[in-house]
Amino acid sequence: EISYAGVQAEARARLAAETVIARLQGVLNIRIDLIGVLSVFGDDAGRLLHSQRCGQARDVRLRLAASHPDKTVAARLLHEVTALYTCGPAGGGGVRTSLRPRLNSVSTTINRDLAPAAWHFLEH
Question: Which tens digits make up the pLDDT trace of 77-88?
Fold first, then answer.
């Protein structure tokens, strides 16, 4: 995460996101959230964000997220976000990075016979 504030903060945050995505294209699928602009309703592919024109938000926190089974590959995103301090759009600050294990869940269906419903009481 990195913050941008002031005139053209949203434009600078978008440029920072585009820069990181271009540098890691083909390596990681990155989710972009512009907190203060679009985060709750955004999708992982960024379709809604890309469909909206740049506004005039003056207080924006750029959050980039990705997952990868190889910790070394995932860590590349951390390095790119940290590099935005000196190599990204002007005025970025408050960089925070973290690398955590992720548990994914998948919805599926199975044959009912493989999951019999049963219960029993335990008495103490």
Answer: 999 999 999 988
Residues in the chain: 124
| E strands in the chain | 2-5, 31-35, 59-65
Residue 122 lies in a domain: no
Task: Give the domain extent around 46.
Answer: 2-97
Token pair for 110: 């199975």
Answer for the pair 36, 61: CB distance below 8 angstroms, yes or no. Answer: yes
44, 63 contact by CB (below 8 A): no
Number of compact structural domains in the chain: 1
Copy the structure tokens of residue 112: 């009912």
Q: Return the biggest CA–CA distance within the chain.
A: 67
Please, is 88 exposed, middle or buried when counting C-beta atoms within 10 Å of its C-beta (0-12, 13-18, 19+)? buried
pLDDT tens digit string along 43-88?
A: 777 777 777 788 888 899 999 999 899 999 999 999 999 999 998 8
What is the pTM (predicted TM-score) of this model? Answer: 0.76
